C-alpha cells in the first residue's frame, strides 16, 4: 500500500511510541522512512530506530526551531528529492498546564503547549511543502478535543487548536494536492502518556466504555489507520479526523458502559 513512498516520521522516542508503530507498519507496507529526534531524547530515538524492520536514520528536529526545520528540508531534498508523506506526532505541555489546575496555568505555559502541539503542524507542513510538488499527505496524531477531559487541561485546548489548524491546512494545501488529516486515537500506554497526571483515569474509561473494546497497550490499530491516510487509498480524504478508539467517541459515558455490560452479560 505504501510501496515507493518516502515518509518523514516524527515523534518516535521509544519502541512503545505510536509513531514507532506507524514507522514499522509503513516499512512493512513498502515505504522508506526517516525519523526525527530532539536533544537528549534523540539517542533514545536512535536506539528505537535500530529495531525497525529496516533501521532508519534520525534527523535532529526541534519543531519550534526554524533552522532545524530548514535543515530537515535540506537533508530530505538531497536524500530523496521529494517527500510523499509526513507523520506529525509531536505534543508537549509544561507540567503546570496539566493535572487539574486549569485556572492556575500561567499564560506562557498555555502558549508553549499551543505552539509545540498545534502550531507545529503548520510549521512542519510548511517546511516539507516544497518537496511535495507531486502532492502528498500530512497526518497528525490527535486526542479527541470535542469535550473537556479530567486533568488534560491546556493540552486539551492545544489539541482543539490542532484540529482547527488541520482544517485550515487542508483548505490551503488541497489545491497543491496535499491532504491533511488527523487520527484521533484512544489512550495508548507510551512514555509520553506516563507524564500525564491521571492518565490511568482516561485509560480506564476506554477499557470499560469502548463498544469494540480498547487495548491501551496495542498501537497497531492506530498505525494501520495512519498508514491508510498516508497512502493513495485515501487520495480523496482531507480535513478529516479519523477516530481510532474502539468507538468510544460515539458513546455517551453512561451509554458506553451499558453497551459493554450488555455484550458481557450471560
Characterise this structure.
The chain has a single domain, classed as NAD(P)-binding Rossmann-like Domain (Rossmann fold), CATH 3.40.50. The chain contains 8 helices and 7 strands. The chain starts with 5 loop residues before the first strand and ends with a helix. The radius of gyration is 18 Å and the shape is globular. It has helices at residues 18-28, 42-49, 66-79, 107-128, 153-173, 199-209, 220-230, 253-264, and strands spanning 6-9, 32-37, 58-60, 85-88, 136-142, 178-185, 241-244. Helix 1 (18-28) packs across helix 7 (220-230) and helix 4 (107-128) packs parallel to helix 5. Helix 4 links the parallel strand 4 and strand 5. Residues 254-266 have low confidence and may be disordered. It has 266 residues and is α/β, with parallel strands linked by helices. The chain has a 7-stranded parallel β-sheet with strand order 3-2-1-4-5-6-7, with helices on both faces. The longest helix has 22 residues, at 107-128.
Amino acid at each position: 500500500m505504501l510501496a515507493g513512498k518516502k515518509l518523514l516520521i516524527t515523534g518516535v522516542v521509544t519502541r512503545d511510541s505510536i509513531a514507532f508503530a506507524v514507522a514499522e507498519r509503513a516499512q512493512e507496507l513498502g515505504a522508506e522512512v526517516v525519523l526525527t529526534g530532539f536533544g537528549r531524547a534523540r539517542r533514545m530515538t536512535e536506539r528505537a530506530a535500530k529495531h525497525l524492520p529496516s533501521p532508519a536514520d534520525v534527523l535532529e528536529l526541534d519543531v519550534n526551531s526554524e533552522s532545524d526545520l530548514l535543515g530537515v528540508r535540506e537533508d530530505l531534498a538531497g536524500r530523496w528529492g521529494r517527500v510523499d508523506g509526513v507523520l506529525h506526532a509531536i505534543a508537549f505541555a509544561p507540567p503546570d498546564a496539566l493535572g487539574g489546575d486549569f485556572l492556575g496555568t500561567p499564560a506562557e505555559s498555555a502558549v508553549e503547549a499551543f505552539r509545540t502541539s498545534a502550531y507545529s503542524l503548520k510549521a512542519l507542513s510548511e517546511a516539507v511543502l516544497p518537496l511535495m510538488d507531486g502532492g502528498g499527505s500530512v497526518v497528525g496524531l490527535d486526542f479527541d478535543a470535542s469535550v473537556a477531559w479530567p486533568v488534560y487541561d491546556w493540552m486539551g485546548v492545544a489539541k482543539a487548536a490542532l484540529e482547527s489548524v488541520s482544517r485550515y491546512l487542508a483548505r490551503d494545501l488541497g489545491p497543491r494536492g496535499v491532504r491533511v488529516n488527523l487520527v484521533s486515537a484512544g489512550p495508548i500506554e507510551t512514555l509520553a502518556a506516563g507524564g500525564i497526571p491521571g492518565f490511568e483515569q482516561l485509560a480506564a474509561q476506554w477499557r470499560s466504555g469502548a463498544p469494540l473494546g480498547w487495548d491501551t497497550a496495542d498501537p497497531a490499530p492506530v498505525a494501520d489507520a495512519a498508514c491508510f491516510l498516508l497512502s493513495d487509498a485515501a487520495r480523496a480524504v482531507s480535513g478529516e479526523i479519523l477516530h481510532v478508539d474502539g468507538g468510544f467517541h460515539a458513546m455517551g459515558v453512561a451509554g458506553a458502559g451499558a453497551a459493554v455490560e450488555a455484550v458481557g452479560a450471560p
